[in-house]
Design a protein that fits this description.
heterodimer; A: Peroxisomal Thiolase, Chain A, domain 1; ten-stranded mixed beta sheet; B: alpha/beta; 2-enoyl-CoA Hydratase, Chain A, domain 1; Rossmann fold; N-(1-d-carboxylethyl)-l-norvaline Dehydrogenase, domain 2; six-stranded mixed beta sheet; 29 helices
Chain lengths: ~400, ~700
C-alpha cells in the first residue's frame, strides 16, 4: 500500500428541522438514505461498487438510528451489498470522526473511496435517551454534575471567561442569523441541500427543502429578552445556542489519485486532523487544544488559516475559541454563512455541515489556502480538521 | 358538468357499515428546490391506518377529496398532485355499502359521485399528477387515469379488477384507459387480466403499457416524482399522447381478444360484467367523456342492481374472511409442534403433497413406497420441481439446497419414527389404508397425527381398531395441490381437538383456506360434483346425445364443461367415487354403464383434438356410449342437474357435514373454481328458484347473496 493524499469530493445535507417538527413522522434512516442518494446522484461518475466503506455517525444508536446505521442506510439507499458499512459515534463529532477515520484508511492506502455521514433525529431520540451514567462519576467526583448537561458546560465557560459576556454572545448569535439569512437570499445554502420527503400522519406527505430553525428577523432586543433555562441569571439562552434538531449529512472522500482518475470534483484537500480532551465541565473549550494540535501536526500557524468553520453549539464556545486565538468576534473569516445557531445542530451530523460550508468558502475565496473545521464534543473534547483549498491561486482577490 | 365544493351529498344505504373514510390531506410543496418557481398542492390519501387496511373510496372520502381539489384549485399552487399513504395509493371503491343498495337511484348516485369528483382532475385548469406510490386498484387507479400525468413506484402493483368482481371500471376507467393506451392494451388490463384470476400489473408493465408516464424507485419516489412535475411545468419534460381512435383495426382486434377472454373464462355463458366492459371499451372510440361516463353509470347501476353482482360480492367477502378464520376450528393454542412429516406413497399425488409441505413447513419430510424405483421417481420429481422454482426465481439456489436436503425416501416404513404428522396418499382402497395405519401405529408415537388424503373413503373406518383413533383426520387436497386453495379437513367422531388444531395449523402454513367437515363420504366438493356429474352421465346413458347433455350447464359459466371435467378427473377415479357413494349414500348415485365401458376399454375422454387442435368428440368414446331410449332436452338435463345439487346440498346440511351454506359455497369456489357470480352455487340455486322448489326453502336469506327483497 502506498500513502495517499485525501480529498473531499463532495458533501451534502438534508434541510435541518426543529426536533420533532419538520421531520415528525419521518424516520431518521429515511432522511439519511435520501441524503446518501442525493449525494450519489450529484456524482454519477462514481461507480457505486468501488466504494470501499460507508461510515455513518449517530449519537443515539437505537431504533431508526440503530441496526448499524452505516450498513443499514447503505442497503436501503441501494448501494450494492458488496459495499460494507459501519456506525460510528463521538457524540457531536460523529460525522467529523467518520471523515477522519475514513481519511486515515484512505491515507494509508487501505481505501480509495469512502462515504461518511451523520444523522440525528433528536425528535425521535431526545438527548440523554437510554443514557445511564456510571454512578462513580459523581460519587468519586470524577466530574461535576454540570459536565453531563451541555447547557451547564456553556454557563461554566461564561464563568471562566467573564469578559465573554452575554451581550457578546447575543451579538455573535445575531450575526450568525444574519449571515445565514443573506446566504439564503443568494442561494448559497440551498445549493447543498437535498430535498427530503416527509410524512406527517396529520398533514400527509410533503417535501423538506429549506432549514426550519433560522430566525432571520431576530434582533438584539429579542435575544436579550430570552430566558436562561440552565440557571437563574444565566447567560445561555435558546437564542445564543443551537437548538435541538433533526437532520443528516453525507460526504464522499477519496484518494486524490482516484478522484482524478474518475474525474470527480475536489472540493478540499485534507491537511491534518486532531482530537483533544479538556475538563468535561467546560467541554466547549475543546476546539482550542484540538486546533493547537492539528496546527502543529500540519506545521501551520493560526495566521495561515483563511477560513474557519466553527460549530456553534453555543455562542460562548465559539467566542472562547476566537478569544484564545486573538480573533475578533465578527472576523469575516469565521462561519461565512452563519452556523448552527441559525440552521441547527443535529448532533452527529454537524461535522460534515462544517465541511460543506468550508468547501463553498474555498470556491468563493481562491485567495485562501487553508481553512479549518472545528467543533466541541460532550464530555470534554474538541476536534479539528485542517483543509487546503484546491482552488487556491496564490493571489489575493480584488 | 362538474361540482362545486358544497354540492354532493350521498348517504349510505340502510344497514351498510360506517365508511372508513380515507382523508385527503393537503399540503403545499415549494418547487424552487426542483427548478420551478412556484408551488405544488400535494394531496395525500390516508385513512389513518396501516397498510393492512388499505385506503378505500366511499362517498365521504370522495366528498372530502372534492373539497381538497377545490382548495388546491383556488390556491396559488401551479399544479396538483395526489399520492397515497405508505405502500398504498388506493385499493379502489369501498365495496362494503354496495350489498346494501336497495334502489337504482342510490346505485346511480354512487357511480355519478365518483365521476363528478374525479373528472375535475382532468377538467380544472391546473395540471394534475397522480403519484402512485403503492397499490392502486380499481377506483384507485381511476383517480390516476383522470389526472393529466402519472408516476409509479417500481414496487407498486396496479390493476382494474372490476370485471373479476362482476363490475366494470365505472369511474372513468373503461372510457379513459382505451383512449389513453389504445383498445387492445385496455382489453388486456380490464378484461384479460381481470378474468385471468385477477392478475395485477407490475409497475414496469404499467409503464410499458403506457398507463404511467414515469417510474421511480421507492427510496426517493416522492422526490423524483416532484422533480418530474417541476420538469413538466418547466416544459423540460413533455409527454406525447397518441390518438388511438384512428386505428380502426385495433378496435376490431380488441373486441376479438375480449370475446376470446370471455369464452376462455365462461365458455358459452353470457356474463353481464365482461360483456358490458367490452361494450364500454368499444364505445370509447367515439364517445366523449360525457357520453362514456354516462354509459359507465348505467352499466354500473345495471350490474349493482342485479343478483350476480350481489352473489359475487358475497363470494368475494367469503373468500377474504375464511382465508384467515376457519369455522369450527379448535383453539390454535392446542396445536402441537410439527418438526418432521411423513408422506406415504411416492406417486404423483404423494410427491405433490411432500413438495408443498417441504416448501412451506421447511421440516424434514420422509416418503416411502413399495419399491426403490418408485421412491427414486418420487424424489426425482420433487427435486425437479425444486429446480423449476429456482429457474422461475421463486426461490434462491440456497433455499433449493435446503429443501432438497430435507427430503428423504425409503422402502422401509421405520423412517416414519419421530414424525409428528404422517399423511397417506396410497391407492384408494379402504383395507390397504386400514392396514397401513395399523402398521404405522407400531412405528410412530401415540400423538403423531395420521392423516389421509382420501377423496371418498371413510376416515372413520380407517381409524377403527386403532389404539389411538383420536389422532386420525382427513386432509383432503385438490389437484393440482400447489394451485388449488381449498383443503377439506375431515373430523371423525373420535378425532380430538389437538389433532384438528394441528391439522389447521399445518393448513395455514400451507396457505390453504380450510373447511372443517364431518367425516362423511366424499366430504363436500367431490360429493356435490359426483352427484351433478352423475346426472349428466345418467342422461347420456338414458340416450341423450353427449353434446346435448354436456351443454346443459353452459349458462352457468363454469370453468369447464361437465365432460371436460370428467376427462380431467378420469373415468377411473370418477367411477370409483361413484361406486363408493352408491354404496354409502344410496341409489341416487348410479353406476354409469358408459363409464364402466370407458374404464374397461381404457378410454379416458369424451373429447379429443383433431389435427388442427380443435376439440372433437373422441370416436373411441362414441362407440362405448350406452344407448338408452329416453333422451332428454338440454333444459331437462339442466333442471335435473341443478335439482340434484340443491337436494344434495340440503342433505349435507341436514346431516351436519358442514354447519352453514356458506361453507358449501366456499368449497365449490375454491375446490373446483366455480365462479363468483354464482356465489359458489347456493346463491345461484336460490335465485333460480331451484332451492325452494326442490328443498322447500332458500339456502341464504334474500339480501345476503342477492338483491334485498
Amino acid at each position: 500500500m502506498e500513502l495517499n493524499r485525501v480529498v473531499l469530493v463532495d458533501a451534502v445535507r438534508s434541510p435541518f428541522g426543529k426536533a420533532g417538527s419538520l421531520y415528525l413522522g419521518t424516520r431518521a434512516d429515511d432522511i439519511m438514505v435520501r441524503v446518501l442518494r442525493g449525494l450519489l446522484e450529484r456524482n454519477p461518475q462514481l461507480p457505486l461498487a468501488s466504494i470501499d466503506d460507508v461510515a455513518i455517525a449517530a449519537a443515539s444508536q437505537s431504533g431508526d438510528q440503530g441496526m448499524n446505521i452505516g450498513r443499514s442506510a447503505s442497503l436501503l439507499a441501494g448501494i450494492p451489498n458488496t459495499v460494507p458499512g459501519y456506525s460510528i459515534d463521538r457524540w457531536c463529532a460523529g460525522a467529523m470522526t467518520a471523515v477522519t477515520t475514513l481519511s486515515g484508511a484512505i491515507a494509508m492506502g487501505a481505501y480509495d473511496i469512502a462515504i461518511a455521514g451523520g444523522v440525528e433525529h433528536m425528535g425521535n431520540h431526545p438527548m440523554g435517551e437510554l443514557m445511564d451514567p456510571n454512578p462513580r462519576y459523581l460519587a468519586e467526583k470524577l466530574v461535576d454534575a454540570d459536565a453531563l448537561a451541555m447547557g451547564n458546560t456553556a454557563e461554566r465557560l461564561h464563568d471562566k471567561f467573564p469578559h465573554l459576556t452575554k451581550e457578546r454572545a447575543d451579538a455573535y448569535a445575531l450575526a450568525s442569523q444574519q449571515k445565514t439569512a443573506r446566504a439564503y437570499e443568494v442561494g448559497e445554502i440551498q445549493r447543498d441541500l437535498i430535498p427530503v420527503a416527509i410524512r406527517n400522519p396529520e398533514l400527509g406527505y410533503g417535501i423538506a427543502t429549506t432549514d426550519e430553525p433560522p430566525r432571520p428577523g431576530t434582533t438584539m432586543e429579542a435575544l436579550a429578552g430570552l430566558k436562561t433555562p440552565f440557571r437563574a441569571a444565566g447567560r445561555v439562552t435558546p437564542g445564543n445556542a443551537a437548538g435541538l434538531n433533526d437532520g443528516a449529512t453525507a460526504a464522499i472522500l477519496a484518494s486524490e489519485k482516484m478522484a482524478t482518475q474518475l474525474a470527480l470534483p475536489i472540493k478540499a484537500i485534507l491537511v491534518s486532523f486532531a482530537f483533544a480532551g479538556v475538563e468535561p465541565e467546560i467541554m466547549g473549550y475543546g476546539p482550542v487544544p484540538s486546533t493547537i494540535k492539528a496546527l502543529a501536526k500540519a506545521g501551520l500557524k493560526i495566521e495561515d488559516i483563511g477560513l474557519f468553520e466553527v460549530n456553534e453549539a453555543f455562542a460562548i464556545q465559539v467566542l472562547s475559541f476566537l478569544d484564545y486565538f486573538g480573533i475578533a468576534d465578527d472576523d469575516p473569516r469565521v462561519n461565512i454563512h452563519g452556523g448552527a445557531i441559525a440552521v441547527g445542530h443535529p448532533l452527529a451530523s454537524s461535522g460534515i455541515r462544517l465541511m460543506l460550508n468550508l468547501a463553498r468558502g474555498f470556491e468563493l475565496h481562491p485567495e485562501v489556502r487553508y481553512g479549518l473545521t472545528t467543533m466541541c464534543i460532550g464530555l470534554g473534547m474538541g476536534g479539528t480538521v485542517i483543509w487546503e483549498n484546491p482552488h487556491f491561486t496564490g493571489k489575493v482577490s480584488a | 358538468m362538474s361540482l362545486d365544493a358544497t354540492s354532493p351529498q350521498v348517504t349510505l344505504p340502510e344497514g351498510a357499515p360506517e365508511e372508513v373514510v380515507t382523508h385527503s390531506l393537503l399540503r403545499e410543496v415549494d418547487l424552487r428546490a426542483f427548478g420551478f418557481s412556484g408551488t405544488l398542492a400535494l394531496i395525500t390519501l390516508d385513512n389513518g391506518m396501516d397498510h393492512n387496511r388499505p385506503n378505500t373510496l366511499g362517498p365521504k372520502t370522495l366528498i372530502e377529496l372534492n373539497e381538497r381539489i377545490s382548495q388546491a384549485e383556488e390556491s396559488s399552487a401551479s399544479a396538483i398532485a395526489i399520492t397515497g399513504k405508505p405502500f398504498i395509493f388506493a385499493a379502489g371503491a369501498d365495496l362494503s355499502a354496495l350489498s346494501f343498495l336497495a334502489d337504482r337511484d342510490q346505485a346511480l348516485a354512487i357511480g355519478k359521485l365518483g365521476h363528478d369528483v374525479l373528472r375535475r382532475l382532468h377538467e380544472i385548469k391546473k395540471p394534475t399528477f397522480a403519484l402512485i406510490n403503492g397499490l392502486a386498484l380499481g377506483g384507485g387507479l381511476e383517480i390516476g387515469l383522470h389526472c393529466d400525468y402519472r408516476t409509479i413506484s417500481s414496487t407498486a402493483f396496479t390493476a382494474l379488477p372490476e370485471v373479476f368482481l362482476g363490475l366494470v371500471p365505472g369511474w372513468g376507467g373503461a372510457t379513459i384507459l382505451p383512449q389513453l393506451i389504445g383498445p387492445e392494451k385496455a382489453v388486456q388490463v380490464i378484461m384479460v387480466n381481470a378474468l385471468n384470476n385477477n392478475t395485477m400489473l407490475k409497475a414496469k408493465e404499467a409503464e410499458a403499457l403506457g398507463i404511467v408516464d414515469a417510474l421511480f424507485e421507492p427510496a426517493d419516489f416522492l422526490e423524483k416524482s416532484v422533480k418530474f412535475i417541476a420538469d413538466v411545468l418547466n416544459g423540460k419534460r413533455t409527454i406525447e399522447r397518441i390518438d388511438h381512435t384512428r386505428d380502426s383495426l385495433s378496435w376490431d382486434r380488441a373486441i376479438l381478444t375480449a370475446e376470446a377472454a370471455m369464452k376462455k373464462k365462461y365458455g358459452k355463458a353470457k356474463i353481464a360484467s365482461p360483456q358490458k366492459a367490452m361494450e364500454l371499451i368499444a364505445g370509447a372510440r367515439t364517445s366523449s367523456r360525457d357520453q362514456g361516463f354516462a354509459a359507465e353509470d348505467i352499466a354500473l347501476t345495471d350490474l349493482v342492481m342485479a343478483d350476480p353482482l350481489r352473489a359475487s360480492l358475497y363470494a368475494f367477502n367469503l373468500i377474504q374472511k375464511k382465508r384467515k378464520k376457519v369455522d369450527g376450528a379448535p383453539k390454535a393454542a392446542l396445536a402441537r409442534k410439527v418438526s418432521k412429516v411423513g408422506v406415504v406413497g411416492a406417486g404423483l399425488m404423494a410427491s405433490q403433497l411432500a413438495l408443498i409441505i417441504l416448501r412451506n413447513l421447511k421440516v424434514p419430510v420422509v416418503i416411502t413406497d413399495l419399491d426403490q424405483e418408485r421412491v427414486d421417481k418420487g424424489i426425482a420429481y420433487i427435486n425437479s420441481e425444486i429446480t423449476k422454482l429456482v429457474e422461475k426465481r421463486r426461490i434462491t439456489p440456497e433455499s433449493a439446497m435446503r429443501l432438497s436436503g430435507l427430503i428423504t425416501g425409503s422402502t422401509d416404513k421405520s423412517i416414519y419414527a419421530g414424525c409428528d404428522f404422517v399423511i397417506e396418499a396410497i391407492f384408494e382402497e379402504l383395507s390397504l389404508k386400514q392396514s397401513l395405519f395399523r402398521e404405522l401405529e407400531g412405528i410412530v408415537s401415540p400423538e403423531c397425527i395420521l392423516a389421509t388424503n382420501t377423496s371418498s373413503l371413510s376416515v372413520t373406518k380407517m381409524s377403527e381398531n386403532l389404539q389411538h383413533p383420536e389422532r386420525v383426520i382427513g386432509f383432503h387436497f385438490f389437484n393440482p395441490v400447489a394451485v388449488m386453495p381449498l383443503l377439506e379437513i375431515a373430523r371423525t367422531s373420535a378425532t380430538d381437538d389437538a389433532t384438528t388444531a394441528t391439522a389447521v395449523a399445518i393448513g395455514k402454513e400451507l396457505k390453504k383456506t380450510m373447511v372443517i367437515v364431518k367425516d362423511s363420504p366424499a366430504f363436500v366438493v367431490n360429493r356435490l360434483l359426483t352427484r351433478f356429474m352423475g346426472e349428466i352421465t345418467d342422461a347420456i346413458d338414458e340416450g341423450t346425445a353427449p353434446e346435448i347433455a354436456d351443454s346443459a350447464m353452459d349458462s352457468l359459466g363454469l370453468p369447464m364443461s361437465s365432460l371436460q371435467l370428467l376427462g380431467l378427473v378420469g373415468p377411473g377415479v370418477a367411477l370409483h367415487v361413484a361406486e363408493t357413494l352408491h354404496g354409502e349414500l344410496g341409489e341416487r348415485y348410479k353406476i354409469s354403464p358408459t363409464m364402466q365401458a370407458f374404464v374397461s376399454h381404457g378410454v379416458r375422454t369424451f373429447y379429443t383434438k383433431d389435427e388442427d387442435g380443435k376439440q372433437i368428440v373422441n370416436p373411441a368414446a362414441l362407440s362405448l356410449i350406452h344407448k338408452g331410449d329416453s333422451p332428454s332436452t338440454v333444459e331437462q338435463v339442466r333442471a335435473r342437474a341443478l335439482n340434484a345439487l340443491a337436494e344434495e346440498a340440503r342433505m349435507m346440511l341436514d346431516e351436519g357435514v358442514v354447519a352453514t351454506p356458506s361453507e358449501i359455497d366456499l368449497c365449490m369456489i375454491l375446490g373446483c373454481g366455480w365462479p363468483l357470480h354464482l356465489g359458489g352455487i347456493l346463491p345461484y340455486l336460490d335465485r333460480e328458484g331451484v332451492s325452494e322448489s326442490v328443498t322447500g326453502a332458500r339456502f341464504h336469506p334474500a339480501g345476503v347473496a342477492s338483491l334485498p327483497q
